[in-house]
Amino acid sequence: MLTDTIQVSGLSEAMVEAVNERAKEVGVAAEDYVRYLIEEDLASTLSMRVLFAPVREQIREGGVSEAELDKLLEEAREEVYREKN
User: Which domain holds residue 63?
Assistant: First the structure.
């Protein structure tokens, strides 16, 4: 399995500490916790694309572009995330 490294800059000290604390709470290394978050987000996005493929096709047939639909779905997802947090 090929692995790569992603370096994230621009996080505040408070954010880094929050990641470290949350990782400790769930009993894993910070690196593993961040990897889990990324994998879950990408899996969720992929699942939504598969689930909504028929809906997307119907909307496209109705004249809405792929970019417009992506924007609408992303805005809805962000709104739900904000409401949950």
Answer: 52-85
- The residues, any chain, with a CB within 8 Å of residue 32's CB and separated by 6 or more, are 23
The answer to whether residue 29 is domain-embedded is yes
pTM for the structure as a whole: 0.52
| Residuewise pLDDT in 10s, the chain (85 residues) | 667 888 999 999 999 999 999 999 999 999 999 999 999 888 777 777 777 788 878 887 888 887 887 888 899 999 998 988 8
Q: Are 69 and 44 in contact (CB under 8 A)?
A: no
Question: Into how many domains does the chain fold?
Answer: 2
Residues 56 and 34 in one domain: no
Yes or no: say if 30 and 40 are a contact pair by the CB < 8 Å rule: no
Euclidean distance between CA atoms 5 and 3, whole angstroms: 7
DSSP assignment of 54-65 equals: HHHHHHHHTT--
Residue 32 is assigned to a structural domain of this protein: yes
